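ARCHIVE CARD
Drawer: 12
Card no.: 0347
Subject: one protein chain, sequence and derived structure
Cross-reference: see card 0346
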Amino acid sequence: MYLEHLSLTDFRSYAQVDLALEPGVTVLVGSNGIGKTNLMEAIGYLATLSSHRVSSDAPLLRFGTDRALVRARLVRGGQTTVLELEINATRANRGRINRSNPVRARDLLGICQTVLFAPEDLALVKGDPSNRRRFLDELLVSLIPRHSATRSDYDRVLKQRNALLKSARAGKFTAGHEATLDVWDQHMAKAGAELLYARLELVERLRPHLAKAYAQLTDGSKEAGALYRSTLQNLMDDDGGSPSGAGSGAGISGPAPSGQGSGPEDLRYLSVGELTERYVQAFAASRRKELERGISLVGPHRDELELVLGEAPAKGYASHGETWSMCLSLRLASYYVMLDDARTGGSAPILILDDVFAELDVQRRRKLAAIVSGAEQVLVTAAVEADIPAELSGRRVKVIPGGIDE
């Protein structure tokens, strides 16, 4: 799959811009702050409905406007698909597929697939767990778009349950609230189990690709790994397999570092129904502490994807170069997982490298370029063309204030 044409209206700094693209490597060159990343952000947003730079949609709208339009023409095999996404300030975003009637924005998910490398990726290793959960969930939705609804359902139930717990902490909890909380426990257990099951499955797919990518980018002296730590497993481990009390630790998906075990019951081998039952038990065991604190202490929203180099966690132990290699390896692992899907009927993703080469030493530049150069489409941004390795020879496009200099 490749992007043939991109058009933006009132997106970020652009009142209107059109960019013609082609398969292979395209490098967008221009001074810092001129709008190169805005173009890449729009493509990434079309694929995931989220920005790698900001957490809300408001900054995506050109200042003083109340909506932005992203239009793209994609080519997959011999088939062309036109996508249009309307980002609104005061109402729900809408989409169109091949100029059809408007649909929900999330109906566009899975059509345009991208893997985006950016300096912000350092947060995947150095940032808090929410960054890694978001990484997993965005990849999950790209691979299986219906999990967008899974995430939305879980977030909605979590919000309602937290509101109820908060009111209890304020001294307004009654017997009626107790019964209502039981109902929300059931809803949250089901939604949480579906999300946890999908994440565990995805981590198992990612792990071998993560190790492979890290070995490709480095001298191979350390092995990269990933452990999924669930708040649910922690409760089970406390009592030999049955939830017994809330805590902040978690169980493990994947081989554990030396000295750590996976607990008496491995979550990877439980069904969604079994995970649902475990969550119901965990909520009951945690209720007193949750009522005291006014928040939900157990669930996928508090889980962690721990990244490991050798026998130590990458966070806090990895050098700056190792941190960058781990970040790049996570994105490459995503690319490899998507390629696995492409071989069974999916689409090979568009690779986007947004101002990444300026952050890397010469050796890592060359290794990364060699790995991605064979992709169907690679879009690269750079302030200095000399930062781009020779392995990424291809079309050069100059970005100027407000547009493109063809």
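Annotation on reverse: The longest helix spans residues 175-217. Confidence is low (pLDDT under 50) at residues 242-251, 255-264.
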